[in-house]
Amino acid sequence: MDTKLFDSELKIVEILWREGDITAKKIAEFTKREIGWSKTTTYTVIKKCIEKGIIEKREPGYICHALVSKSEVQCFETNELIERIFDGKADLLVAHLLGQGRLSKSSLEHLKSVVEHLG
């Protein structure tokens, strides 16, 4: 993946990750209930997602299918964050997260085991 997702586009893709392939009409129902978007707004964002190659429309029935996985988006967004905010240095991001004190003891233990496994 090499395309930045706007928050609105991410909301559409998150619905598809959660619900699987569904109609644009069903997506509009979710966005109305969960976000308060109109049907027009939803269809506009779906169209932009299609143009960007983030989702595809399948016929019959205007069924939407995500073309990017959650892990692809997470990887892209994390790399963007590291490049923009942390001068391309992932260790600065990790140090920042650790310094915030927002990680539970179990989260810290999990991170420790991940680092040990990688090393």
Please explain how this structure is put together.
By secondary structure, this protein is mostly helical. The chain contains 6 helices and 3 strands; from the N terminus they run αβααββααα. The protein has a 3-stranded antiparallel beta sheet with strand order 1-3-2. A hairpin with a 4-residue loop joins β2 and β3. The chain is elongated. The model has no long low-confidence stretch (mean pLDDT 94).
Essential attributes:
119 residues, 6 helices, 8% strand
Secondary-structure blueprint:
Blueprint: H1 7-19, E1 22-23, H2 24-34, H3 39-52, E2 55-58, E3 63-66, H4 70-85, H5 90-99, H6 105-118
Antiparallel strand pairs: 1-3, 2-3
Helix pairs in contact: 2-3
Quick summary:
The protein is mainly α and 119 residues long.
What is the string of helix and strand elements? HEHHEEHHH
Residue share in helix: 55-70%
Strand content: 5-15%
The total strand number stands at 3
Strand order of the largest sheet: 1-3-2
Computed CA radius of gyration, to the nearest angstrom: 18 Å
